[in-house]
Specification:
Elements lengths: L8 E10 L2 E11 L4 E5 L6 H9 L6 E6 L2 E2 L5 H6 L2 E3 L12 H17 L9 H13 L15 H14 L4 E5 L10 H15 L2 E5 L3 H7 L2 E6 L2 E6 L1 H5 L2 H6 L6
Parallel strand pairs: 3-8, 3-9, 6-7, 7-8
Antiparallel strand pairs: 1-2, 1-4, 4-5, 9-10
Helix pairs in contact: 3-4, 3-5, 4-5, 5-6
Bound molecules: adenosine-5'-diphosphate and magnesium ion.
InterPro entries: AAA+_ATPase (IPR003593), ABC_AA/LPS_Transport (IPR051120), ABC_transporter-like_ATP-bd (IPR003439), ABC_transporter-like_CS (IPR017871), P-loop_NTPase (IPR027417)
Keywords: ATP-binding, Nucleotide-binding, Transport
GO molecular function: ATP binding; ATP hydrolysis activity
Length: 254
């Protein structure tokens, strides 16, 4: 188990109670730099809530969250983003009326503002657009750069979200069901892309995903959630062999 002190992302004794309902209970886990962790578990297990508490859109009732060893439990989502945290949502948050290129340019611009104000923001000159087009090429969308984001397939929207995270300089990336709504024929290329981007950038990735084949193929370790608690946190092979995990799914296929 990763030492939570040295982890890229660490949560300790995390609990979340909303209106008397225990949404998260005593979740402790550490994710190492460059590690890809998949979070699985039945509907309502608390996977999205865990991401919410990590990204700061929800405050835990108890426990702490640390990014690269710094406590961010009470930090705003914006401050966590400045510490390198990026996130996608179960539903896409792209600017659908803007072009693919503009969506990435906005992310790069927000990063520029972090470090030096608007005057540093990337402009529209060819030189300023070069790194943005590189991010787009990285995810295979440079050819689509002038199309409205709303005209992209679900799979391509997910790729665009990855380009946005590259442009915003995220080092820890939370992906909530990145394969949701994606056609089965687009799954392999999206999966490969997530793996390649993660390897090339050494980003730390925490991915909620219920396609078990994707999880087995991509994840270094798998966190299994059940009724708000962490049931198992181990290699994919050990997790699928775990009887407790199988029972938690009540016979449903993992
Ligand atoms: N803002 C909220 N207020 C009240 N209950 C919530 C809220 N967010 C999530 N829940 C409840 O917490 C439980 C876990 O939800 P969620 O984290 O979305 O699960 P998962 O992503 O694993 O499907 C569910 O029972 C859900 O209804
Ligand atoms: Mg969810």
């Amino acid at each position: 188990m990763t030492d939570t002190e040295s982890a890229a992302l660490a949560v300790e004794d995390l609990s979340l109670v909303i209106d008397g309902a225990q949404i998260l209970r005593d979740v402790t886990l550490g994710v190492a730099t460059g590690e890809l962790v998949a979070v699985i578990g039945p509907n309502g297990a608390g996977k999205t809530s865990l991401l919410n508490v990590v990204s700061g859109t929800m405050r835990p009732t108890q426990g702490r969250v640390a990014l690269h060893g710094r406590d961010v439990t009470t930090a705003s989502p914006a401050r966590r983003a400045r510490r390198g945290l990026g996130r996608t949502f179960q539903t896409s948050y792209l600017f659908l009326g803007l072009t693919v290129l503009e969506n990435v340019r906005l992310a790069a611009q927000a990063k520029g503002q972090r470090f030096g104000g608007l005057w540093r923001a990337p402009g529209r000159s060819a030189a300023a657009l070069a790194p943005i087009r590189e991010h787009l090429a990285r995810v295979g969308l440079d050819g689509a750069r002038n199309r409205p984001a709303g005209s992209l397939s679900h799979g391509d929207r997910r790729k665009l979200e990855l380009a946005i995270m590259l442009a915003s300089g995220s080092t820890i990336v939370l992906l909530d069901e990145p394969m949701a709504g994606v056609n089965s024929e687009d799954l392999p290329s999206l999966m490969e892309l997530i793996r390649d981007v993660q390897r090339d950038t050494d980003a730390t990735v925490v991915m909620v995903e219920h396609h078990i084949d994707v999880v087995l193929e991509l994840a270094h370790r798998v966190a299994v959630m059940h009724h708000g608690a962490l049931l198992a946190f181990d290699t994919p092979e050990n997790v699928v062999a775990d009887a407790t995990v199988r029972d938690a799914y009540l016979g449903e296929p993992l």
